[in-house]
Amino acid sequence: MSPGVYWFRRVLVAVLVLALLGGLWWLFGSRGGGDDSAAVAGTATPTPSPTASSPSASPSASAPSSKPTKKASPTVSKAPECADKDMSVTVSTDAEVYPDGAEPKFSLTVANDSEATCRRDVGQQALELRVSSRGSRVWSSDDCSPDGGKDVVEFEPGESVSQTVTWSRQTSQPGCPDGEPLADPGQYEVLARNLKLLSEPATFTLQGG
Fold first, then answer.
1. How far is it, in rounded angstroms, from Cα 130 to Cα 108?
2. Over the stretch 115-124, which tens digit does the pLDDT of each residue have?
3. Distances in whole angstroms, Cα of residue 106 to Cα of each of 30, 61, 130, 136, 162
4. pLDDT digits (tens, 9 = 90+) for 82-102
5. What is the CATH number of domain 84-206?
6. Residue 151, SS3?
7. Whether 98 contacts 104, CB under 8 Å
8. Domain edges within the chain
């Protein structure tokens, strides 16, 4: 064997040995580095995640304090009640004769004939219109509407209150039974009442067909 070949082989073996050592160092060195990094990661104190602080309880929304609206108190009349002797009740018709089918209209008026202010109930219950013929009761506004509310009015001297009612010519009885007949042709009179005060009658005639 020539000296050049011998030395070439020696150099080649040395290179292979160095390459093998370098590979072993890289293999074990990288594993060791991995362990070290894992250890660091394992021992590293984790950064505490920010604790979600519970929101401070906001004051509950209170309903606005409702102050009741002050209602204007009704004016209470200090006037005395009207005496019957100081009052008058009148009734009138819109015609003297009513042809067949025409419905009479009655006007009822309550007036203060005194020189002093007083108060009087002129509500539905306190008023009545009553139709009669030859002394026999034919119709009353109280038969079908007996119970009504009060309506106390303050009357100045000479002041009056009026109401108009249309009569359908149908007769009635207390309790307002159904099927009452129409009034026959003939002469009638209507009377008005306020509480216990009565009017003078007004006469009229119903004509037939």
1. 11
2. 999 999 999 9
3. 123, 63, 10, 19, 10
4. 999 999 999 999 999 999 999
5. 2.60.40.10
6. coil
7. yes
8. 1-37, 84-206
